[in-house]
């Protein structure tokens, strides 16, 4: 059993990660931390602390006092929100990472998980089956912060032996907690609108293919990566992770098989340019080789589970 801290626990990934980690480590051994004063309702089964990751002294004091085997640092601004507030996005996405990397370097944390993203790639990257190692010229603030973060993770590992692990998540699709401020969020919103009003207007064009993944696969990947023996983790920047790839049109068609009168229309906005700069699909052979990664959910499975479970009252 490990002593675990999840920072940014109230977000889309954090909520489900805390629930999964509490199953594995015991409710009381996984502390959920978030900027929100009130503990999110789904996380009340175990300890909760209010934490501002930008308050370096407070974060340091808390972690040095408690000591953690694992820290998951999920507090960040996503791609679309970051474009609207570049200075703050850079500050939030980078400063929190340094605080946690330094604490691990000093011996107060044994293992760190920090998420990267397909946003590290850019328009000059090969878009189909994007390889692990390739051209990386991101054009978004979010992508630049994730690429810089990857380089720092690798640096802290090679210079100071910090055990930090990371995944380049594709767009994540879930029903327990809403995403906020991402370019891939349309693929979550669509299920709520399909169920509530049987129609949806996509902010990406019909043929915009992006790599996507159902949250259960993403959580399993995260836990498998963190449980793998350190010597099998050959990549200390971040692993490519493939799931499924689809366009808004293909997703709409899959929903129509369950809700025959569902209608989709398209009104691309500023997020189209972000999506156009990202890969269509991802080659994750390194993750398969190093820690036996395999995704489970295909498009049909994802559509069925989402339509069965989204709660339209969450909107
Ligand atoms: N899903 C994220 C976003 O759209 C990418 O990491 O910003």
Structure characterization notes:
The chain has 11 helices and 14 strands. The chain is of the alpha/beta class and 315 residues long. Helix 1 (12-25) links the parallel strand 1 (4-7) and strand 2 (30-34). The strands form 4 sheets. It has a 6-stranded parallel sheet, sandwiched between helices. It has a 3-stranded parallel sheet with strand order 6-8-12. It has 2 domains: 4-170 and 213-240, 3-Layer(aba) Sandwich (Rossmann fold); 175-212 and 243-280 and 297-314, UDP-galactose 4-epimerase, domain 1 (Alpha-Beta Complex). It binds serine (SER). Residues 78-79, 117, 119, 142, 169, 171, 182-184 line the site of serine.
What's the helix and strand layout?
Layout: E1 4-7, H1 12-25, E2 30-34, E3 48-50, H2 56-66, E4 68-73, H3 79-84, H4 86-105, E5 109-113, E6 116-117, H5 141-160, E7 164-165, E8 167-169, E9 171-173, H6 186-197, E10 199-202, E11 210-214, H7 215-227, E12 239-240, E13 244-246, H8 248-256, E14 263-266, H9 271-276, H10 285-291, H11 299-309
Parallel strand pairs: 1-2, 1-4, 2-3, 4-5, 5-7, 6-8, 8-12, 9-11, 10-14
Antiparallel strand pairs: 11-13
The protein binds serine.
Largest sheet: 6 strands, parallel
Tell me the strand percentage band.
Answer: 15-25%
Helix proportion range: 40-55%
Shape descriptor: globular
Low-pLDDT stretches: none
Q: Structural class of the helix and strand makeup?
A: alpha/beta
The value of Rg in angstroms is 19 Å
CATH topology type of the largest domain:
Rossmann fold
Q: Strand sequence of the main sheet, in spatial order?
A: 3-2-1-4-5-7
Roughly what is the average pLDDT, rounded to an integer? 97
